[in-house]
């Protein structure tokens, strides 16, 4: 085998890793086992060539799938016999058509039983999900009309076979085990090919801190996620093919360390959050402030996409409901009305904007943004106020490490630039 392990060379526990071991790595095809190749174009897919055809784990995003499929087709022209969706997100389950050989029979498509429900929910809330993703990547709801977001309204190739907890498949004499696990989603599958020692994790491993706390998305399950990671490690895989980033090839000790250290981090975060909740159920913001985040200086736990504070909030939401604990927020007044009252007390929206800038100058950007929100909501038509809020949120975004926080703050600046509060 001549392929290179793209994660060779990360050397220490200081968060440093080669470019290939990052969430956004694209490349391949990389031979990860006999007749087995991994490739990535934003998200990854693994192709297992068998005597009956290709077993494909994940299919990429619709608009990126042709490039992804071209990588695999450098190695095999066999038709796709079976496609497995690790979950129903658009960057994993929308690209199958690009992989199909001309004139081939329709492949079997296998997924967890909850995947069709996810597709139905996306179709029902296509505009909502488009707006959420526009904000997540730094834009505004007006960007939701872009073709880049239209995919939520386009159903992918539907699964033809569903399973509940565990399913074993044999294709061309090769065994595949499918295991359900709640993690980033409730419909997640991890795939173990014992005959070739290859583990396909889907988004249960993505080379950065687990995406278990996305502020705008449906509930995530870090406690179940940790159990899944331990179950994967128990298989003693030699190779790990992730949902994002490059694979680890034929290094069982490294794979085990990556899986178990991630599980330990999630378990510690959950237990520490629950311990604070058990202390008289304080308001949510106080729980977040009191939870001590476990050290996470490993390359695969860097807070570059999601971050620990958001994971804590995910635990709170599941165990503690949606109410923040602040009495006025149980049945709140309209935000604009509250903002106008604050502006009246301060001497106008510009006075609030000036106060926000003064607070920012002394180094408290979080508090400054609270005040800036009131200023913009009180008078979104005032260009002076808008410019001040734009500058503040752009500055806040620059100081964030996680894509989630950075882009939501950039989105707030984009909304302010358009003369409307973030919504």
Polypeptide structure, described:
Strands 1-2-3-4-5-6-7 form a 7-stranded mixed beta sheet, covered by helices on one side. A 5-stranded mixed beta sheet has the order 8-9-10-11-12, with no helix packed on it. The protein contains 13 helices and 12 strands. A hairpin with a 2-residue loop joins β8 (166-171) and β9. The relative contact order is 0.10. The chain has helices at residues 65-73, 90-93, 115-124, 126-136, 222-234, 252-277, 284-290, 308-320, 335-346, 349-361, 365-378, 383-398, 403-417, and strands spanning 27-33, 36-41, 43-50, 53-57, 80-84, 108-112, 161-163, 166-171, 174-180, 189-193, 198-202, 239-242. It folds into 3 domains: 19-265, Metallo-beta-lactamase domain (Metallo-beta-lactamase, Chain A, 4-Layer Sandwich); 267-320, no CATH class; 333-417, Alkyl sulfatase, dimerisation domain (Serine Threonine Protein Phosphatase 5, Tetratricopeptide repeat, Alpha Horseshoe). The protein is an alpha/beta fold and 423 residues long. Residues 1-20 have low confidence and may be disordered.
Write the layout of secondary structure elements.
Layout: E1 27-33, E2 36-41, E3 43-50, E4 53-57, H1 65-73, E5 80-84, H2 90-93, E6 108-112, H3 115-124, H4 126-136, E7 161-163, E8 166-171, E9 174-180, E10 189-193, E11 198-202, H5 222-234, E12 239-242, H6 252-277, H7 284-290, H8 308-320, H9 335-346, H10 349-361, H11 365-378, H12 383-398, H13 403-417
Parallel strand pairs: 4-5, 5-6, 6-7, 11-12
Antiparallel strand pairs: 1-2, 2-3, 3-4, 8-9, 9-10, 10-11
């Amino acid at each position: 085998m001549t392929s290179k392990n793209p994660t060779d060379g990360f050397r220490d526990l200081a968060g440093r890793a080669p470019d290939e071991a990052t969430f956004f790595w694209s490349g391949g095809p990389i031979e990860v086992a006999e007749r087995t190749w991994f490739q990535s174009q934003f998200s990854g897919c693994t192709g297992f060539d068998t005597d009956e055809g290709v077993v494909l784990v994940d299919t990429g995003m619709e608009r990126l799938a042709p490039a992804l499929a071209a990588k695999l087709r450098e190695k095999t022209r066999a038709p796709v016999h079976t496609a497995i969706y690790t979950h129903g997100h658009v960057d994993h389950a929308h690209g199958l058509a690009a992989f199909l050989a001309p004139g081939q029979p329709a492949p079997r498509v296998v997924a967890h039983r909850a995947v069709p429900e996810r597709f139905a929910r996306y179709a029902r809330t296509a505009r909502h999900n488009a707006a959420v993703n526009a904000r997540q990547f730094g834009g505004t709801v007006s960007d939701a009309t872009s073709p880049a977001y239209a995919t939520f309204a386009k159903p992918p190739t539907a699964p033809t076979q569903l399973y509940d907890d565990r399913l074993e498949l044999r294709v061309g004499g090769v065994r595949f085990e499918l295991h359900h696990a709640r993690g980033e989603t409730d419909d997640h599958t991890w795939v173990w090919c014992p005959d070739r020692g290859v583990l396909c994790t889907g988004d249960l491993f993505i080379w950065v801190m687990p995406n278990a706390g996305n502020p705008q998305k449906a509930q995530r399950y870090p406690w179940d996620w940790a159990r899944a990671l331990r179950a994967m490690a128990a298989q003693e895989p030699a190779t790990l093919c992730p949902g994002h980033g490059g694979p680890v090839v034929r290094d069982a000790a490294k794979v085990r360390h990556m899986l178990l250290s991630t599980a330990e981090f999630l378990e510690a975060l959950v237990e520490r959050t629950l311990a604070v909740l058990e202390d008289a159920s304080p308001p949510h913001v106080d729980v977040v402030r009191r939870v001590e985040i476990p050290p996470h200086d490993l390359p695969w736990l860097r807070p570059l996409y999601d971050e620990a504070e958001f994971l804590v909030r995910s635990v709170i939401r599941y165990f503690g409901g949606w109410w923040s604990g602040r009495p006025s927020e149980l049945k709140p007044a309209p935000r604009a009305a509250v903002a106008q009252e604050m502006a009246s007390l301060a001497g106008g929206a510009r006075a609030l904007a000036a106060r926000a800038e003064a607070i920012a100058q002394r180094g408290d950007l979080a508090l400054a943004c609270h005040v800036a929100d009131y200023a913009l909501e009180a008078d979104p038509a005032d260009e002076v106020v808008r410019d001040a809020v734009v500058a503040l949120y752009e500055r806040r975004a620059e100081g964030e490490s996680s894509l989630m926080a950075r882009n939501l703050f950039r989105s707030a600046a984009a909304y302010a630039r358009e003369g409307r509060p973030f919504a």
